[in-house]
Amino acid sequence: MKLHLLGASCLLALLSACSSGEEEQTKIPEIPSAKQIPITLNCVASTTSANEKANVGTRVTDWGYESQDKIGLYVVNYNGTTPGTLQNNGNHVNNMRFTYNGTWTPDNEIYWKDESTKADFYCYFPYGTPADVTSYAFSVKEDQSTETAYKACEFLYGKTSGVAPTAEAVNITTKHMFSCAVINVKAGNGFTDETLAQSAISVKMNGIKTGATINLTNGIATATGTAKTILPLENGNNPRIRH
């Protein structure tokens, strides 16, 4: 009886050893997950138009970026060393909305494709829903006599090309797509400086097209529609409009 028990104990030990060895041999090694790098922005604005000499700052209008301002961002990946083409859909990032509150925050967290693929960044303000990135319709107001109306006529665009994946914020400088006309009203023709300052002056600009289509792939704006009359924002003797 003792011999049988000893034999059974040895057999059990051998089976346990074999079972343990099989588990070690068939264990699948863990594959480390790819590192995800968040995309963050440092979006600034030039105080001049796209056709003027740049003067970079953090201003969108004369009053600067304001809390809750919103921009749209497209990110297009490279294919090796070849830049991709901005499309209406199917880009790495499609028109992600960022909101300004001291820094720019996206509606949803976005990441680089990987740790090596470069990308082009396209940014515009104010945020909208472009159906066609090559022909995005935008218009300025005919009545720009209030600060709110004048600000609503701002459109800015910027592109940063060939950016390598980084944990640092991507710098994008946006420029005004429309010109700013400043009208200087001076004394003359019966007006002295004193009488001019005391007078109620009304200024209008005629023959200005208020519509445009903007190509977000290259930042080119094309005027559309018929010419209209614009009422500018009063700023002392220097009314101004966006057109």
UniProtKB/TrEMBL annotation:
<protein>
    <submittedName>
        <fullName>Fimbrillin family protein</fullName>
    </submittedName>
</protein>
<dbReference type="InterPro" id="IPR042278">
    <property type="entry name" value="Mfa-like_1_N"/>
</dbReference>
<dbReference type="InterPro" id="IPR025049">
    <property type="entry name" value="Mfa-like_1"/>
</dbReference>
<feature type="signal peptide">
    <location>
        <begin position="1"/>
        <end position="21"/>
    </location>
</feature>
<dbReference type="Pfam" id="PF13149">
    <property type="entry name" value="Mfa_like_1"/>
</dbReference>
<keyword id="KW-0732">Signal</keyword>
